[in-house]
Task: structure prediction
Amino acid sequence: MKKYYGLGLVALLLLVVANSLFVVRETERAVMLRFGELVNADIPPGLHVKIPWVNRVRKFDARIQIEDSVPADFFTLEQKALVVDSYAKWRIVDVGQFYVSTQGEVSRAGSLLAQRVNDGLRDQIGERTLQEVVAGERDQLMLDLTANLNMDSAVDIGIEVIDVRVKRIDLPEDVRDSVYERMITERNREAQELRSRGDELAIGIRADADRQAIIFEAEAYRDAERIRGEGDAQATAVYADAYNKDPEFYAFTRSLNAYRETFANKGDVLLLDPESEYFRYLKDLDNGEPE
Result:
């Protein structure tokens, strides 16, 4: 019987020890409750002791978490509707305030943050035009929204908003098709204007090219005729100079060329006067001189 009492005592002791010790990891934040009342608002990481069945420890993830908001409708400064899908990155910085504000429910903290994100987006988008929201000032919008959220969230909920980002910006479905059609029509009009402008430029370029080609051909023909005339003049001058140096030899050479061309075809028949000048250099020679 004493043996069973001893085993029971050991088991009870182990149970008390197991319920007295707890560990808080580096990635966690924890609070301690006593009969539901908050008695320690921020337990540091490490091994700690609590009173069994009196104290209760609640642990929360201290790493960055993401809250994905439901897409909502917003209006720009010019009252144009947009459907914005966003998300926020956040983490716990004041675990005591976090527990008091949310009763330790992470989903409730996410819902509160999502509502504040939508309210902040509504205010920020309402102060900007469509162009600024879509492209011009999107980064600045996110920075302003994050700063405004941190001014209240750290105090009210005990969290820090790391970043807020927009995943997608769309037009409402009831106006999306008409807007797309208008955009397509506008782009087609611009494309047609560009084509017309290009055709006009092409016609001008072709006309100028044809004119330049005619000018180049005329100039080339002019230069060719001038060069040909200069060549003929030089050739004539050379012939004249050669003739003046020895007229008799030049006449003899021309006669030989005439004989060669005349008798090139053996079937030709010529009827000429023997006393003709044509036979001047074919007559008998006396003392090397023609008669």
